[in-house]
Design goal:
With 418 residues, the chain is α/β, with parallel strands linked by helices. 47% of the residues lie in helices and 16% in strands. Strand 6 (214-218), helix 7 and strand 7 (237-243) form a beta-alpha-beta unit. Helix 4 crosses helix 5 (152-166). The structure holds glutamic acid.
C-alpha cells in the first residue's frame, strides 16, 4: 500500500504485526484488519485576505466500519500527510475497541499552519474541507473532533457548514463543539483529566506517591496543559514543560497559574521568567518520576529510550514511542508505560458521550460526565494491567491485543460479504 508510505504508518503496521503474530491472526485476516477501509484526498482552494487564491490538501481516512460509524479527530499541521493520518486512524480503531466504544477509527487533516492563517482564511478552509467531505461523513457514518491544531471554533464551523447543507441543525456531526451548540460538559478537559487519572492509578500500581512525584510534560496544548494542572492538583510537582517553540524547567516546581498567564500573552511557555530554558530533547531524558509526552509521534526512539529517567511514561500523544524504543523499555523493565490508546482515550470517550447526548437532545452535568469517564478508564486500565500480568507482556502489547482482538472478533462474526 504505497499510498500510505510514511514512517508513522510503518510504525503502526509494525505494532500491528507484532500483535498479529502473538494472537496468531490468520494471514487472510491480517490485511483486512490492517488497511483502511476508505481514504479520501481533497484539494481545497480558498480566497485569501489579499485577494489571491491558495490551494491546500485535505485528508480523511476511515479505518474500519465493523463496529459502527468511524470516529476521530481532524488535525491542522504543516506536515500532515495521508500516511500519517492513516496511522492515526488505525490507532483510533484500537483505542475505541479497547474502551468499548461502538466506533471504528478515523482521522483527518489539512496540511496548513493554523497559527499563521488569518481567522477568515481558517474559516474558509474549514468550511471548504467540510463541504468536500459531505458525501463521506454523517452522524451514523463518520464523526470528526478536534486534534492537534483544531479547536471548538473549527468544530462549530464544521457543524454549521454541514447543517446548512442539510437544511436543519445537526449537532451530532462533530464532537468537541462549544457547549452552547450541543458540546458536552467536560469534553475540553477530558483527555488531560483522563491522563492524570490513569497516572494516579499507575502510581498505586507501582507504589509511587503522586503527592511527592516530579513530572515533565512535552507539549502544552489541550492535553499537556490540562494534564499538568490536574497532576498539580493531585500534589505532584511539574518540573519541566516544552512546546513547539521552546521549554522551561524549575526543579522547585513551575507555578502553573503564572505560566498560564505567560502563555496567554506569548502563546508559548518559552521565556517564562521563573524558570530555566530546556530543549525538547533534554526534557525527554530529564530526571523526573513521570514523563508525559503530549505532542507529536515518534519522540521516544531507539536513540533516547535507554536514557529516560522516569518511572512512569504516560502517553498523552498518539504514537510518541517507536517499537525500537518499546523493545529497549521492555528490556529495562523499570518504566511503567501507560500506552497511548489507553492513556489519551479520555478525549474520545467524552466525544462518545457528546454524540450520545446530541442524538438524544438530553444533556448531562459535568459530574455525571467525569464519573462515567473515570469508570470506563478504570475498567480499561484494569483489563490492560491484568492481561499484561497474566500473559507476561508489555502494557502496550496488552492494550493492543485487547483492542485488536475485539475488532477481529467483530469482523469474524459479521462475516465477509458477499
Ligand atoms: N483527537 C482525539 C484523539 O486522538 C479525539 C478524537 C475524538 O474525540 O473523536 O483521540
Amino acid at each position: 500500500m504505497d499510498i500510505y508510505n510514511h514512517p508513522t504508518f510503518a510504525m503502526a503496521c509494525q505494532q500491528f504485526d507484532l500483535v498479529a503474530d502473538r494472537l496468531q491472526i490468520p494471514a487472510g485476516d491480517r490485511d483486512r484488519l490492517k488497511y483502511p477501509k476508505r481514504a479520501m484526498v481533497v484539494t481545497l482552494p480558498i480566497h485569501c485576505e489579499d485577494g489571491s487564491t491558495k490551494v491546500y490538501t485535505g485528508y480523511r481516512v476511515q479505518h474500519h466500519l465493523s463496529l459502527g460509524p468511524t470516529k476521530g479527530g481532524l488535525r491542522f499541521h504543516p506536515d500532515v500527510t495521508l500516511g500519517e493520518v492513516a496511522a492515526l486512524a488505525m490507532w483510533m480503531s484500537w483505542k475505541c475497541a479497547l474502551t468499548g466504544l461502538p466506533y471504528g477509527g478515523a482521522k483527518g487533516g489539512i496540511a496548513c499552519d493554523p497559527h499563521r492563517l488569518p481567522q477568515c482564511e481558517l474559516e474558509r478552509l474549514t468550511r471548504r474541507y467540510t463541504q468536500e467531505m459531505i458525501p463521506f461523513i454523517g452522524p451514523q457514518v463518520d464523526i470528526m473532533a478536534p486534534d492537534m491544531g483544531t479547536n471548538e471554533q473549527i468544530m462549530a464551523w464544521m457543524m454549521d457548514t454541514y447543517s446548512v447543507h442539510m437544511g436543519y441543525t445537526v449537532p451530532s456531526i462533530v464532537t468537541g463543539k462549544p457547549i452552547g451548540l450541543g458540546g458536552s460538559q467536560g469534553r475540553r478537559e477530558a483527555t488531560g483529566r483522563g491522563v492524570a487519572y490513569l497516572i494516579n492509578r499507575a502510581c498505586d500500581t507501582i507504589g509511587l506517591d503522586l503527592g511527592q512525584a516530579t513530572v515533565a510534560v512535552q507539549g502544552y496544548g489541550n492535553v499537556g496543559s490540562v494534564a499538568a494542572l490536574a497532576l498539580a492538583r493531585y500534589g505532584a510537582k511539574i518540573v519541566a514543560i516544552t512546546d513547539a517553540f521552546g521549554g522551561v524547567q524549575n526543579a522547585r516546581g513551575l507555578d502553573l497559574r503564572k505560566l498560564d498567564t505567560h502563555v496567554a500573552a506569548q502563546r508559548t511557555v518559552a521565556g517564562f521568567a521563573e524558570a530555566e530554558p530546556i530543549t525538547n530533547e533534554q526534557l525527554l531524558v530529564a530526571p523526573c518520576d513521570i514523563l508525559v509526552p503530549a505532542a507529536m509521534e515518534r519522540q521516544i526512539t531507539g536513540r533516547n529510550a535507554a536514557n529516560l529517567k522516569c518511572r512512569i511514561l504516560a502517553e498523552g500523544a498518539n504514537g510518541p514511542t517507536t517499537p525500537e524504543a518499546d523493545a529497549i523499555l521492555e528490556q529495562r523493565g523499570d518504566v511503567f508505560v501507560i500506552p497511548d490508546i489507553l492513556c489519551n482515550a479520555g478525549g474520545v470517550v467524552v466525544s462518545y458521550f457528546e454524540w450520545v447526548q446530541d442524538l438524544q437532545s438530553f444533556f448531562w452535568g459535568e459530574t455525571e460526565v467525569t464519573d462515567k469517564l473515570f469508570r470506563i478508564l478504570e475498567n480499561a486500565f484494569t483489563q490492560v494491567v491484568s492481561h499484561s500480568r497474566k500473559q507476561k507482556i508489555s502494557m502496550r502489547m496488552a492494550a493492543l491485543c485487547v483492542g485488536i482482538k475485539r475488532v477481529q472478533e467483530a469482523k469474524r462474526v459479521r462475516g465477509l460479504f458477499p
